[in-house]
Each structure stands twice: as structure tokens, then as C-alpha cells.
Amino acid sequence: MAVVPSDIEPDEYPAPTGPEPDEYRRVLGHFPTGVTIVTALGPDGPVGLAVNSFTSVSLRPPLVGFFPAHTSGSWPVIRQAGGFCVNILGHHQESLARTFASPGTDRFRDVGMRPAPSTGAPVLLGAVAWLDCTIESITPAGDHDFALARVRAIAADSSRPPLVFHRGRYGTCD
Ligand SMILES: Cc1cc2nc3c(=O)[nH]c(=O)nc-3n(C[C@H](O)[C@H](O)[C@H](O)COP(=O)(O)O)c2cc1C
Asked: What Gene3D superfamilies does the record tag this protein with (predicted)?
């Protein structure tokens, strides 16, 4: 039997076929996340996309992961590269998040970058933290994949507040 919090009335209970996509997005949007840009160095130059499914997975060994959509154009390049850099954005980088979530633009045009030490993937200047990672495994996960990766190098700049995504809007938490 499904268990629901007593003070939240479900729109439909029990749901016979699961939530509709719009409702699913709306409800899941109540979970606040940080915003990252996952980059890699492909044969034709750098690629990257905005990602909020990034998560820490394991301490020993240090593992992280994210969920690229099967529709992602950057994911096959990242996968082929075998590694990526997770750039955790600051509140001052909202426009970067929008750029890397939009198709058909030169995403790297207005951002400074340097190669990450292990993979050579772009570290975006101004990010509040970055993690240089090599892919350990890829697991199908519905209409996404789960990319599990080992962390090879990290750094953080704690002086700036993070960018936060909540209910379809950008904000911060400091
Ligand atoms: C805040 C935010 C978080 C996102 N998180 C993800 C994610 O975790 N996985 C994903 O595949 N796409 C995610 N997207 C969507 C991609 O950034 C977007 O579809 C992008 O255009 C994909 O680029 P690509 O086709 O070059 O891979 C997110 C978008 C936004 C605005």
C-alpha cells in the first residue's frame, strides 16, 4: 500500500498508472538542487550541458554521478571522452546555466576556461567548485543513463554563494 504524508492531499490516490509528465515535473521541482555544468573535451572541441542531477555517491573510493538524458547531444561526446569535469555554479553564473541549457548556441563563447588536470575537460572560471572525473560505469535509467565516475581532482572557492534551482527558478541559499 502506498504511504502519503498525512498533511498533503494527493491529486489522485491511488494513482493507477503513475503521474502525468507535467505533474511529475511540477512536484519534483519542489526538490531544490544546485546547478552544474558538466564539460568534456571532444575531438571537435569542448562540449557541456547544464545538469542538476549531479550527486555525490561514495567517499571511499570517491565516486560521483549524474543522469544524462538519452536526448542529450553532448552526452555521446562526454561518454566517448571517458571523463568529464563537473563545474558547480555560483549565484553570479545564472546566465551560464541558461546558455548551457539552450540548444543552438556557442556555449563556450563568453566563458573563460582552462583544462582540468586529469581529463583536460574545461574548468569554467568563476565556478564555486569543480570535480575532474573519469567514467567508471554507465547504467541505463529509463529515458536517462546513470554515469558513475571516479573523482581525480577537486577544488572549491568558498567565498561565493551557490546557484540554486527550485520550482523552475534560479536563486541562492546564502
Ligand atoms: C537547471 C537545469 C538542470 C538540468 N539538468 C539536466 C540533467 O541532469 N540531465 C540532462 O540530461 N539534462 C539536464 N538539463 C537539460 C539540459 O541542460 C539541456 O537539455 C541541454 O540543452 C542539453 O544539451 P546537449 O543536447 O548539448 O546535451 C537541465 C537543464 C536545466 C536548466
From this structure: Electron Transport, Fmn-binding Protein, Chain A (2.30.110.10)
CA of 87 to the centre of ligand 1 (A): 14
> Domain 34-168 is of which CATH architecture?
Roll (2.30)
Q: In the chain, what are the domain boundaries? A: 34-168
* 95: enclosing H helix or E strand: helix 94-100
In angstroms, the CA 89 to CA 100 distance is 12
| Minimum CA distance residue for ligand 1 atom 4 | 51
Q: What is the pLDDT of residue 15?
A: 57
Predicted structure pTM score: 0.93
What's the pLDDT tens digit per position in 56-108?
A: 999 999 999 999 999 999 999 999 999 999 999 999 999 999 999 999 889 99
Mean pLDDT of the chain: 93
Pocket of ligand 1 contains residue 72 by CB under 6 Å: yes
